[in-house]
Structure formats: structure tokens, C-alpha cells
Amino acid sequence: MSTTNPIVVAVKDSPQSEAALGWAASRARKHHVPLVILHVADDHWSLNPATWNKQLRKAGEELLASAASRVSGQFGIDATTELLTGSVAGALGHYGPNVGLVVVGSGSPHLGGTLTDRALQIAGVTPAPLAVVGTADADGGSGIVVGADGSELSLRAVEFAAAEADREGQELTVLHAYQAPDPVSDAGLAPAELAELMDDQERVILSETVAGLRSTYPDLVVHKVLEPGKEPVRALTDAAAGARMLVMGSHGRGGFARLVLGSTTHGVLTHLPCPTVVVPPSEDGSSTDS
After folding, report:
1. What 8-state DSSP symbol labels residue 83?
2. 205 plus 283 within the same structural domain
3. For 38-65, how does the pLDDT look when each residue is reduced to its tens digit (9 = 90+)?
4. Fewer CB within 10 Å, N side or C side of the chain?
5. Please, are residues 176 and 149 in contact by the beta-carbon 8 Å criterion?
6. Of the residues 139, 174, 190, which one is the last residue of a structural domain?
7. Which range (146-150, 161-165, 265-269, 283-287) has the least confidence?
8. Which helix (H) or strand (E) element contains residue 162?
9. SS3 for 51?
10. How many other CB atoms are found less than 10 A from the CB of residue 35?
11. 120 vs 106: CA distance, rounded Å
């Protein structure tokens, strides 16, 4: 995250949005960066734009004024507010180039997971890192967890996570999960030598991922975790339970560049373990090995 560009938090009337607002305001105050509170009046589906838009704008302006007042009272921050119109993902996607971090609330709990349809859409289009915050103890965890798979985008995620951990005085866990051949179900399909070779290659990927961190952050405690045979979404959500933050790239080496959000990121955001930051590709589009 840039230490000078503003933090932007999108708000609506929900407990998750309120948690995101508090998380963003606390972060802005701690790092002495501007805070911008946005609300998107989603009018793109309206059949009677003139009448409906007036009501949407009024409700949005009242929501923003109330949010700014709470931030001022609780955090002593004079936040800027802005009302946008159009689709939520489209509006926030165009807003992001000069922003240090975009923050949104997660969806509502439902059927054992979290419905994060808007967060998923925004993560797929915003050029800034996106933090998705739920209601479960957003500031009480410890440690930064980052998913790594050797892709360029995961290296960007590791860089973000390392800078965050060093700045916050947190320990960093770099986790690499992959599907190794199962010795029972895959017997006869993958020779033991091949499985061993795969394990060795994945260990090299993890070691190379963290190789430069010690020279850049000499005081940072880094834990390397290899999870062979564990599904990546489960590995990340288990490791990040109780963490201060989980960081991952928007997609990894198993995805194609045309897929704006990878299956692992999608799966984690629908079962949010802690505040989770999705790091986008670089501006030149380089992001994966595919």
C-alpha cells in the first residue's frame, strides 16, 4: 500500500460496511494518510432514472454525512466524501488508479459461507489493492499470512505482505499449497520419484519467493509453510484464522490472464477468515506465468 495515496472506503447500510469503515479509518489515522468515504448510488438498472436517482442521491448523501460524522467523532479524522453513480464495481474500478487501498465490507453470512458478490466484482476490476473486511474481530488478530505460488502476481502479493508485516511489527507467514499425488488414490499413476521431484520443485518455489526478504526487511520474522496435498482455499483460510491480515494475488499461476479473478481468491473471499487484501496485476498487465 502506498504510504501517501489515500485510503478509499466504500460504504452502505450494513454491519459489514460499518466494520470496513472503522478498519479503514483506524488505518488512515495510524499511517497519517487521507481517508475518502464513497457511496455508489447503483442506478444502472433503474427504469425511471430521473425520479429514482434523486431519491438514491439523497439517501447516499445522508449515508455519507453520517459516516463522516462517526469517523470524526471516533477517530478524529476529517474524511472527504464523494457520491458516485452507476454500477458499484464499475464506479470503484475507475476510481482506483491513484489510491493506496480500496476497502469494502464483505457480504452477509449465508449457508455456511459469505456472499461477497460485490466484493468479488470489485476485486476483478480495481487497479488498487482491495481490502475486504468482515465483522469478525477485524483488528484483533496477529500475524500476516500471504499465499504464494511462484507467479509474478504472487510475488507482488508477498512484497505487499512483507512491507505490511514489517511496518506493523507482525510476523509473516508465506504459504504455498499445491496438489501433490496422493499415495493411495494415485498409486500407479505417479511414480514415487515423480512425487518427490514435484515436492522438491515446490520447495524451491517457496524458497525463491522469500529469498530477498531478509535483505530488505532484516528484522522481519518469516515463516515458510508448504502444504502439499491441501486444497489452496482451505490451506489459506485455515492458516489465516486469527490472523491480522491475509494477502493474495487476484489470480495465480494456474489461471489465465483473461480471468480477472482466480478460483482460489474467489473461494477465500466467500469464506473470509480475516481482513483480506487482494493485490491486482501491475499496470503493464504482467501478473502470471500463463
Report:
1. E
2. yes
3. 998 876 655 565 666 788 889 999 999 9
4. C
5. yes
6. 139
7. 283-287
8. helix 152-168
9. helix
10. 24
11. 9
